[in-house]
Design a protein that fits this description.
This protein is α/β, with parallel strands linked by helices. The protein has eleven helices and eleven strands.
């Protein structure tokens, strides 16, 4: 039995789609089961509720062999530790008590670096990993840089203004990965019952790119000028708060961006194993371009 959390999220949905119909039965935890497509819902077990609640995870993890764990976004949380560590505590107890053998979790790069000590969401993610690892179960933390798919949050200014924004320097070359590749790595691990021990698995995409590089690629794919504009950390935080994020969570985003700007995501050596296939150009062709054109047709 494989348990999938966040089955309607960007990564969780792709994980679910790729394990349904296999030899292993699948169970999901979902606040709103109706948001899972009916053809998939008919082939899985559903435990309704939040995977931050002890009763829900105790029920969902009963008889499970492996769990895909992803902390859902909580933009209004009182702190980054509350959003990641406190949310995960009930699950850590349930994992230990329900006999789960393997856990695959979505985390972040940076373990062992000075920059990760005050990196907001990254620091809290690494604390979450420690909490899961302390259960003693076989554990793989998928450690990622920023996702290509995050660009979709700026599809409107890309379409209307030909501009996208970040407080990170436009010249800083960083790894970036597609969520489809994260899901593929997770699925491989979830379907393999033979690994054990605890380690991290980096998912780095195929190349390091700066935001200026990305702007050039987007311009070529969309056949219209797209430029990157660096903004101040103060303006970045103000925009996050204006969008509804709590001050603490917005500060966590600022601290994470500052650490990435100092090279946090460059600390992980690229290897053939950590190099995943989807290039930013391919992602732009297959994901960003349809999203921009769909928005333009509204």
């Amino acid at each position: 039995m494989i348990v999938v959390t966040t089955p309607t999220g960007t990564i969780g949905q792709q994980v679910l789609e790729n394990i349904v119909g296999g030899a292993e039965p699948v169970r999901v935890i979902a606040r709103d089961p109706s948001s899972i497509p009916l053809p998939i819902r008919r082939r899985i077990e559903v435990v309704q509720g939040s995977h931050g609640q002890i009763g829900v995870v105790n029920e969902a993890f009963e008889g499970a062999d492996s769990v895909f764990w992803l902390c859902p976004p909580d933009p209004r949380a009182e702190s980054v530790d509350a959003a990641y560590v406190d949310f995960t505590r009930p699950a850590a107890d349930a994992l230990r008590n329900r006999g789960v053998k393997q856990v695959v979790a979505v985390s972040a790069l940076g373990r062992g670096t000075v920059m990760a000590r005050n990196a907001g969401h990254v620091t809290a993610s690494l604390k979450m990993d420690d909490l899961i690892a302390n259960t003693g179960l076989s554990f793989r933390a998928l450690t990622m840089p920023s996702f290509m798919d995050n660009i979709l949050r700026q599809v409107e200014p890309i379409r209307s203004q030909g501009t996208f924004f970040s407080p990170i320097s436009g010249d800083r070359k960083l790894p970036t990965c597609a969520t489809r590749d994260i899901a593929a790595v997770a699925v491989r691990l979830l379907l393999d019952p033979f690994w054990s021990g605890q380690s991290s698995v980096a998912v780095l995409g195929p190349e390091d790119l700066s935001f200026n590089d990305m702007g050039q690629i987007m311009s070529e794919v969309l056949e219209r000028p797209v430029r990157f504009q660096q903004i101040s950390f103060e303006a970045y935080k103000a925009g996050l708060i204006q969008s509804g994020m709590s001050d603490a969570m917005a500060q966590g985003m600022v601290d994470m961006a500052a650490a990435k700007n100092e090279g946090l995501d460059n600390a992980e050596p690229r290897t053939p194993q950590s190099t995943t296939p989807t290039s930013f150009r391919q992602w732009c062709e297959e994901v960003l371009k349809p999203a921009v054109f769909q928005l333009a047709e509204r």
